[in-house]
Write a structure and sequence with these properties.
This protein is mostly helical and 97 residues long. It has 4 helices and no strands.
């Protein structure tokens, strides 16, 4: 039986989404010229994008056969920006064979 080691999303799209969601919190926090605050539409849209990408990564962690699955899910929930990038880097190493 062949094990699926690929992401639910294609790898280039997953990397792009992970890098975007790693950058968006800085825009919201530093808020250049009040365009990115959570009180505006752009800030709410950024937050929605970050949550949707987080859901995609958690869904991939749940459906994949990885070691320490609960730990990875917790890591993704607590530190999403960092965890998504680390998850992509270590994905092949943490797969159970």
């Amino acid at each position: 039986m062949k094990r699926n080691t690929d992401l639910t999303l294609p790898a280039p799209i997953a990397w792009t989404l992970a890098l975007i969601t790693a950058f968006l919190p800085f825009l919201i926090i530093f808020n250049p010229s009040d365009k990115w605050s959570l009180t505006g539409e752009i800030g709410i849209a950024c937050l929605a994008i970050m949550v949707l990408v987080l859901i995609l990564f958690i869904a991939d962690a749940i459906t994949s056969n990885i070691r320490n699955k609960p730990l990875w899910i917790l890591f993704l929930l607590l530190f999403p920006s960092i965890a998504q990038i680390v998850y992509l880097i270590l994905k092949k190493k943490i797969m159970m064979t």
